[in-house]
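Q: Structure tokens for this one, please.
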Amino acid sequence: DYDFMRQNVSIPPKKGVVIIDSRPAARQYDPGHIPGAINIPDSQFDKLVDKLPADKATLLLFYCGGLECMLSHNSAFKAEKLGYTNIKVYADGNPAWSKAGLPMAVSTAYVKKLFDDKEKFMLIDARPRRVFGQGAIPGAVNIPDSEFDKHREHLRFLVLQHAAILCCQ
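A: Here is the predicted structure, written as tokens:
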């Protein structure tokens, strides 16, 4: 359920937990997924099993596009057939996570496509200034996460005027 999922979502990913988005990459995973999730589309599952952890007791949390979507259930069943023993499906999936207003992540491929297509967006790098100064994505604006409260109104304006993407590591 939602509470269990929320307890297991973490950046960096929680040790002993792998969150797997079973949706197609370009159309669904890339533009918005649960933070820390890896993408193993159900249609590509057999080709991408090497992304699964070696330890078959690792908690695998599968999700997809909500209650009507069976991709996560299909993938979980395939993982079970491979011998994984600690599998759960977050059936409410990405729609419920997003609707709850929880953070979403985008893929590197998605950001690259925005650059390539010359889309109107702003990339905010939330790392400390000293880290940002050592190298960043060209065009990114540095607003350290410790300063978000100071820049609340400015950030609200940016989100209203642009598709704002926040990055940090």
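A few notes: The CA atoms of residues 100 and 158 lie 22 Å apart. DSSP finds seven helices and seven strands in the chain.
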